[in-house]
Amino acid sequence: MLVVSDVPDPESLPAMGGGLLGLIVTAGLVVAVILLYRSMRTQLKKIDFDAQGTTDAERMRGTGTSEGKDERPADAEVNGHRERPPHA
To answer: Which residues make Cβ contacts (< 8 Å) with residue 81, sequence separation at least 6?
Structure first.
C-alpha cells in the first residue's frame, strides 16, 4: 500500500501575505472609487428633477401640469433653445 503524505510542516513554509503589490492594487482601487464617486455626484447635480412627477410623454404632449397653465418663460427661450417661428 502506497501512502502519499507530502504535507509540509507549517513552520517550514515562508510567511505569506498580500505584499506590496496587493497594497498598491488596493490603494489604486480606493482612489478609482473615490474619483468615480465624485464624478457621479457632479453628474447627478446636473439632472433637472421634475417635482410634479410627470413622465416624458406627458411633457411632450403638454399635459401633466398641475394647473394646465403654460410654464414656459416669457422670453420663449427654454433650456437654451429658442422656439421656432410659426409657419405662415
So the answer is: none
C-alpha cell at 80: 437654451
Tell me how far apart the alpha carbons of residues 34 and 31 are, in angstroms, rounded to a whole number: 5
Facing residues of 46 across strands? none
**Smallest Cα–Cα separation from 54: which of 67, 45, 44?**
67
At 50, phi and psi to the nearest 5?
A: -95, 105
Residues 68/62, Cβ–Cβ less than 8 Å: no
Q: How far is CA 86 from CA 21, 62, 83, in A?
A: 66, 17, 9
Considering only the C-alpha atoms of the chain, give the largest distance between any 2 of them, rounded to a whole number of Å. 103
Q: Is the pTM for the entire model greater than 0.90?
A: no
| pLDDT one-digit tens code per residue, 71-82 | 555 544 555 555
